[in-house]
Amino acid sequence: MEAIRSPEQVGFSSQRLARIRPWMDGYVNAGKLPGAMTVIARHGQIAYAEWTGKRDVEADRPWEADTLLRIYSMSKPICSVALMMLFEEGRFHLDDPVANFLPEFADVKVLVKGATALDQVEDCREPLTVHHLLTHTSGFTYGFNGGVLGDAYTAGKIDFGPKRGGGLAPMVKELAKYPLAFQPGSRWNYGVSTDVVGRLVEVISGQSLDAFLTSRIFEPLGMSETGFGVPEDKVDRFAALYTPNEDNSMKLLEKPDQSVFLRRDGMTFSGGGGLISTAVDYLKFVEMLRCKGRFGEERLLGPRTVDFMASNHLPGDLASMGQPVFSEVSFAGVGFGLGFSVTLNPAISQNMGSVGDHGWGGMASTAFWVDPVEDMVVMYMTQLVPSSHYPIRKELRALVHQALID
User: Fold this and answer.
1) Quick one: average pLDDT of 339-348?
2) What span, in angstroms and rounded, lies between the C-alpha atoms of 135 and 114?
3) Residue-wise DSSP of 259-286
4) How far is CA 121 from CA 112, 113, 181, in A?
5) Strand partners, 379
6) What's the sign of the alpha-carbon dihedral 20, 222, 83, 313?
7) How far is C-alpha 137 from the geometric centre of its chain's CA atoms?
8) CB contact at 8 A, 205 and 86
9) At 379, which helix (H) or strand (E)?
10) H or E stretch including 330?
11) CA angle, 214 then 220 then 226, to 5°
């Protein structure tokens, strides 16, 4: 993709788009973010692409278009696409029990409502299915969510992070020893579901998740900078990671050359949060979604599959499924598909957008969305955890939509 000569060619106001740079600079100059990058494309043409600040403040290295960064949960849509490619081959059904492929989940239990200990359980009323995993209605959680189960994950080191060695299989088997937080399908809860999806990709395809993603997604899309871990010869382009202090200044959390994301043998390939990418690379994946499964001459998914994934698969919005707010964004008027959040009603969500726009974000305050109504994609990159600290995504939605003038 190439930038166009004038944003007006695709329905944007240059003057209004120019509001984005001062907004990014405001965060960076105040010492709240190390650097930031915003990319907006419409009708397949880049209308806006600017970056500011540093990828490594301590080393005085500027943010650049090819900066490598941790995309964390923006790995989830990629891993979900991988599984749906196998779905298109007739290798499984969405209502298949997970235990058909991962027998360790054959007798999984569920915590009773109000449980205060892991042994307060009941039987599953219905099998844990592939659909539950893709929609985050499985009953899995994350350790940082807390509660009886989250605390147990932390104590038991249920962790699919990049520093975890040994591969996906043993960690998924360990996960299966724990009960679910609730009856599958009854609630939405963010957790390690997509890491289990990654293990399904391995079992169904017969390849490691790393090998499958590389051969079936990254190579066809030309995403040569995306993968699990940073090679030694690219560490100089890898961003440092930061976290806020109480006064909203920031401190270094992880140096590039000491990162747990450095490539090494025996890494656990986390489909839920383990990928490294660049803005240039990830834009290719997002454009593939906008083009309903196609990028250039390559087609990864059929158009109807992408539409199916970007439809709401919940009985209502996320607020009605027990998740009224996530990160800094209201989830009223927002549903969830197969790997993405989906806007159902922008007015109820109180965020600018279109019905049917879909996307996701990452723990280091990154985000993207695809807007089929406006034929537009938007992507924001930085490196600050947690993503909930500043209302970046809400502000960006307003900045993008106010600049549309056609």
Assistant:
1) 97
2) 23
3) -TTB--TTB---TTT-EEE-HHHHHHHH
4) 5, 9, 10
5) 39, 368
6) positive
7) 16
8) yes
9) strand 376-381
10) strand 329-330
11) 45
Residue 370, strand partner residues: 358, 377
CA atoms within 13 A of residue 168's CA, in its CB half-sphere: 24
pLDDT tens track for 225-273: 999 999 999 999 999 999 999 999 999 999 999 999 999 888 899 999 9
Own/partner long-range contacts of 97-101 (Cβ < 8 Å, ≥24 apart): 97/127, 97/128, 97/129, 98/127, 98/128, 98/129, 98/130, 98/132, 98/133, 98/196, 98/200, 99/127, 99/128, 101/200, 101/203, 101/204
* DSSP letters spanning 381-392: E--BS-TTSS-H
Residue 195 to residue 305: CA distance in whole angstroms: 21
Residue with tokens 């051969």: 215
Query: Omega into 386 within 30° of 0, i.e. cis?
Result: yes
- Hey, CA dihedral for 211, 212, 213, 218, is it positive or negative? positive
Residue type, 376: M
User: Structure tokens of 169?
Assistant: 């299989």
β-bridge mates for residue 121, sequence order? 111
Establish how many alpha carbons lie within 13 A of residue 328's alpha carbon, considering only the half-sphere containing its beta carbon. Answer: 20
What's 56-97 look like in SS3?
Answer: ECCCCEECCCCCEEECHHHHHHHHHHHHHHHHHCCCCCCCCE
* Structure confidence by residue, pLDDT tens digits, 162-201: 877 788 999 999 999 999 999 999 999 999 999 999 999 9
- Tell me the pLDDT band of 117, cut-offs 50, 70 and 90: very high
61 in Cβ contact with 55 (< 8 Å)? yes
Distance from C-alpha of 301 to C-alpha of 126, rounded to nearest angstrom: 30
Would strands 109-111 and 275-277 be described as parallel, antiparallel, or unpaired? Answer: unpaired
Place of tokens 């235990």: 99
Q: What residue has token string 């105040």?
A: 30
So what's the pLDDT on residue 329? 81
Global confidence as pTM: 0.97
Q: Which of 104, 107, 103, 185 is nearest to 140 (CA)?
A: 185
d(CA 314, CA 162): 31
Instruction: Specify which residues 124 forms β-bridges with.
Output: none
